[in-house]
Specification:
The mean pLDDT is 78. This protein has 2 domains: 53 residues, no CATH class; 231 residues, MetI-like fold, CATH 1.10.3720. By secondary structure, the chain is mainly α. A two-stranded antiparallel ribbon has the order 1-2. The protein contains 17 helices and 2 strands. Strand 1 and strand 2 form a beta hairpin.
């Protein structure tokens, strides 16, 4: 198992290098840069900027350097100093912005995933075991709702309902009196109250998908010969279900962790805007619109690294759940 994990980690190193390069290329693709965006904004406001000032700003932000020079300086700062560059729009280091936003984003994403699994896996199992029953139809309806209704619309309706019926504003991560207050039990409880709606909204889409995946995979497993044979020999139904079919049915679920985590992080942009959440989603949107290259590149790089880390975790989880994967990898 250890050699399996080590080999997986070693294969990720060149992938991470390639991801960093592609991330920098992506933020360089749009025409123009931050300076041209800023100059155009000033001119639209009626303020004229001479060419000398444009050249000075371009040199100040290092935008007159070749593409590869900027890339290697960016990577050098990240690897040696943890410096993701300077945000032109926010006028502060990107690392400070990320330190404020990434923990909240990851907390919402991971908790949403766990809540989604805690709800959808039992529902998917019951739906498969009781196929075409009222429970199955209800589960199918819930999954279709999660797939069909946009998250930001659910967030709007949910925020309106809570505000009008509970005299409590679910916007933001804290109430006004706790925003700058030191951590305490009251602040933690206030945070938990504000997390209920975001966790429900962000996790609802993945809940619908997970229910369908678990149901379909478990139905396939229940029709296989080993299940029929074990049932014929009188094995307890619950033991039979949980020992093999369920373990096999959740394998595809584990393999999607690498895609679910960044999807939750990147997919909550509109939800974060609607609910006024201090996460990376709205910051990334503003950075792309303003061509704030180092801020956008840092967030894109983190989302990409999350995909790689999620894939590694899913590989380890699959190897732990299914020995065929572990032993097959060792033979190679």
């Amino acid at each position: 198992m250890i050699s399996f994990i080590v080999r997986r980690i070693l294969t990720l190193i060149p992938i991470l290098v390639l991801i960093s390069f592609v991330s920098f290329v992506v933020i360089e693709l749009p025409p123009g840069d931050w300076v041209s965006f800023r100059i155009e904004s000033l001119r639209m406001s009626g303020i004229e900027v001479d060419e000398g000032e444009v050249a000075r700003l371009t040199a100040q932000y290092g935008l007159d350097k070749p593409f590869l020079t900027r890339y290697f300086r960016w990577m050098e700062g990240i690897l040696l100093h943890g410096d993701f560059g300077y945000s032109f729009q926010w006028n502060q280091p990107v690392s400070e912005i990320l330190a404020e936003r990434v923990p909240a984003t990851m907390m919402i994403a991971v908790l949403s995933l766990l809540v989604s699994w805690a709800i959808s896996i039992p529902i998917g199992i019951i739906s498969a075991v009781k196929q075409y029953s009222p429970v199955d139809y209800i589960a199918t309806f819930i999954s279709f709702i999660g797939l069909a209704v946009p998250g930001f619309l659910i967030a709007l309706v949910g925020a309106y309902f809570i505000l009008n019926n509970f005299d409590f504003s679910p916007l933001g991560l804290f109430s006004q009196e706790f925003v700058d207050a030191p951590w305490s039990l009251a602040k933690v409880l206030d945070l938990l109250k504000h997390l209920i709606l975001p966790l429900f909204v962000v996790g609802l889409t993945s809940t619908g998908v997970t229910i369908r995946v678990i149901r379909a995979n478990l139905l396939d497993e229940l029709k296989k010969q080993y299940v029929i044979t074990a049932r014929a020999k009188g094995l307890n139904q619950r033991q039979l279900l949980m020992k093999y079919p369920v373990r096999m049915a959740i394998n595809p679920l584990m393999s999607t962790v690498g895609f679910v985590l960044p999807a939750l992080v990147g997919g909550e942009v509109l939800v974060s805007i609607v609910l006024s959440l201090q996460t990376t989603g709205p910051v990334l949107l503003r950075a792309v619109q303003a061509q704030d290259m180092y801020l956008a590149g840092g967030i894109i790089l983190i989302l990409s690294v999350l995909t790689v880390i999620g894939t590694l975790l899913s590989d380890i989880a699959l190897a732990a759940l299914d020995p065929r994967i572990r032993f097959g990898g060792l033979k190679k």
